[in-house]
C-alpha cells in the first residue's frame, strides 16, 4: 500500500525524534553527573507542566486553528485563485518573483524575528511554486528556509540579537552595519542556490488559458477583498509586534484569530452552508493534529536536557575549555557550543538567557568584544533551525508539505555547508577588524 506523502513525512520525523529521545534518556545513565533519578520516559508529558508548557499548549491550539482555516480557504478555491493571479502576473518574470519572495521571507526573519508565524504561508508558497513549474522543495525554500536563514542572518531580530545584546549590556541593535553585510551575503547565496536548482526542475508551468480558468472560481469578489484586507492587517501587526511588548505577547493568538475569521468568513461567502464550513474546518484541524505528537517529542528532548542536568554539564565544559585556547578559537568554541545546543533547545531567546551569562565573561576574559560573542551566538543559534529534526517549526512545515526529513536533509545539506563556512569567515573578519571593540 502506497502511503500518503504527509503520512510518510510524519512517520520519518516521528522515528527520528523517538530515537533521539531514547538516546538522550539513556545518556542520563552514562554521562557522569547527569540526573537519572526521575521519570524521563514521561518527559514529553511532564514538559507541559514546565515553564514552557504554556507556550507548547498555545502553539498546539494555534496549529489546530490554522489547519482548519487553511483547509477551508483551499477547498473554496480562494487560495488557488490568489496563486493563479500571481502566476499570471509573473509568468515571464520567474526570477524576479523568486528574488522578491526570498527577500520578503528573509526580511521577516532578519528584521522582525518571525519564524513559526510563517507556517500558515507554507502551503501557499508550495502551491505557487508548483504553478511556476518548480517543486515542493522550492516552495519550502522560498518560505520556511528563507525565513529561517533570515532569522539567523539577523539585523534587528529582537528575539536573538535584541535579547542577547541586552544580556551582554550592549546598546540594542548596535553593530548592525556588519550584520547587514551578513544578510546580503546569505540572501545572495540562498537565491543563487534556489534559482540554480530550479533550472533543473522539469515542472510544468500552466498556460495562460488554464490559469485564467482557475481564476473563474465560485468565490465571490468580496471574499477576495475580505481575505486580502485581513492579510494586510495581519502583516502590519506582525511587523509592529516585536517592538511592542504587549503585541509580541499576543502574536500567536492574534494570527490564529485572523486566519480563523478569514477561513470562516470566506467559507460562508463562497458556500453559504455553516454545516459545510464546520465539516471542512474539522477535517483541516484533524489533518494538522499529528504535528502535536512531534512537538511533544521535540520539546521532551529539551526537557530531558534541562531536568537531567545535561545542559549544565555542557555549559561547565564550555566555560572550562575556553580558557585553554586562543581568542579566535574561543570564539569558535562559543559558535560550535551554541550550534550543538540548538539541536536540543530551538528557542533563540531561551538560549540567550541560558548562554549569554556564560559567553559574556568568556569574551571579557579573552579580551574579545562582547559584540563578537553575540555574533557567534547568532550564527550558532540560527542557521541550524532549518536543519535539525528537533525543531518543531521545521517538522510542522515538512508535515504540511508532505516532504520527508530525509529528502529535506539531502536538499539542504549543500547550503548548510556553505553557511558553516560563511559563519566562520564572518567571525574571522569580525575578529580581524575588532568588531564591536
From TrEMBL:
Residues passing through the membrane, by range: 12-32, 52-73, 94-115, 140-164, 176-195, 223-247, 254-278, 290-315, 327-346, 352-374, 386-405, 411-431
The entry's keywords: Cell membrane, Membrane, Transmembrane, Transmembrane helix
Record keyword Chloroplast present: no
Locations listed in the record: Cell membrane
Topology of this chain in the membrane: Multi-pass membrane protein
InterPro entries: C4_dicarb_anaerob_car-like, DASS-Related_Transporters
Main localization, broad class: membrane
Superkingdom of source: Bacteria
Metal-binding listed as a keyword: no
Pfam families for this protein: DcuC (PF03606)
Protein name: Ion transporter superfamily protein YfcC
Organism: Fusibacter tunisiensis
Amino acid at each position: 500500500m502506497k502511503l500518503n506523502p504527509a503520512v510518510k513525512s510524519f512517520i520519518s520525523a516521528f522515528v527520528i525524534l523517538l530515537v533521539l529521545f531514547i538516546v538522550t534518556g539513556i545518556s542520563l545513565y552514562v554521562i557522569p553527573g547527569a540526573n537519572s533519578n526521575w521519570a524521563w520516559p514521561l518527559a514529553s508529558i511532564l514538559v507541559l507542566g514546565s515553564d514552557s508548557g504554556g507556550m507548547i499548549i498555545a502553539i498546539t491550539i494555534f496549529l489546530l486553528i490554522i489547519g482548519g482555516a487553511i483547509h477551508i480557504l483551499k477547498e473554496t478555491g480562494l487560495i488557488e485563485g490568489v496563486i493563479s493571479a500571481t502566476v499570471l502576473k509573473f509568468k515571464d518574470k520567474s526570477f524576479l518573483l523568486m528574488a522578491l519572495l526570498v527577500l520578503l521571507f528573509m526580511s521577516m526573519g532578519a528584521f522582525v524575528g518571525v519564524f513559526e508565524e510563517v507556517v500558515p504561508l507554507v502551503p501557499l508558497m508550495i502551491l505557487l511554486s508548483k504553478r511556476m513549474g518548480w517543486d515542493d522543495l522550492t516552495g519550502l525554500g522560498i518560505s520556511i528556509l528563507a525565513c529561517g536563514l533570515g532569522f539567523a542572518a539577523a539585523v534587528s531580530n529582537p528575539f536573538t540579537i535584541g535579547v542577547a545584546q541586552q544580556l551582554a549590556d550592549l546598546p540594542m541593535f548596535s553593530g548592525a552595519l556588519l550584520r547587514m553585510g551578513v544578510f546580503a551575503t546569505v540572501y545572495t547565496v540562498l537565491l543563487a542556490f534556489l534559482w540554480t536548482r530550479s533550472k533543473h526542475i522539469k515542472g510544468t508551468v500552466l498556460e495562460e488559458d488554464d490559469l485564467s480558468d482557475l481564476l473563474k472560481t465560485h468565490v465571490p469578489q468580496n471574499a477576495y477583498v475580505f481575505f486580502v484586507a485581513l492579510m494586510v492587517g495581519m502583516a502590519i501587526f506582525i511587523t509592529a509586534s516585536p517592538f511592542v511588548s504587549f503585541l509580541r505577547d499576543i502574536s500567536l493568538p492574534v494570527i490564529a484569530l485572523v486566519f480563523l475569521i478569514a477561513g470562516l468568513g470566506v467559507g460562508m461567502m463562497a458556500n453559504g452552508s455553516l454545516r459545510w464550513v464546520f465539516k471542512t474546518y474539522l477535517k483541516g484541524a484533524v489533518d494538522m493534529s499529528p504535528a502535536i505528537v512531534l512537538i511533544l517529542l521535540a520539546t521532551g528532548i529539551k526537557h530531558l536536557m534541562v531536568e537531567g542536568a545535561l545542559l549544565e554539564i555542557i555549559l561547565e565544559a564550555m566555560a572550562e575549555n575556553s580558557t585553554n585556547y586562543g581568542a579566535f578559537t574561543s570564539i569558535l568554541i562559543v559558535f560550535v557550543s551554541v550550534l550543538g545546543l540548538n539541536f536540543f533547545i530551538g528557542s533563540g531567546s531561551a538560549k540567550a538567557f541560558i548562554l549569554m551569562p556564560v559567553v559574556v565573561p568568556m569574551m571579557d576574559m579573552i579580551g574579545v568584544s562582547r559584540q563578537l560573542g553575540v555574533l557567534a551566538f547568532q550564527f550558532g543559534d540560527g542557521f541550524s533551525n532549518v536543519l535539525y529534526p528537533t525543531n518543531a517549526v521545521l517538522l510542522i512545515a515538512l508535515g504540511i508539505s508532505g516532504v520527508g526529513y530525509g529528502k529535506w536533509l539531502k536538499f539542504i545539506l549543500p547550503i548548510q555547508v556553505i553557511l558553516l563556512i560563511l559563519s566562520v569567515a564572518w567571525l574571522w573578519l569580525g575578529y580581524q577588524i575588532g568588531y564591536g571593540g
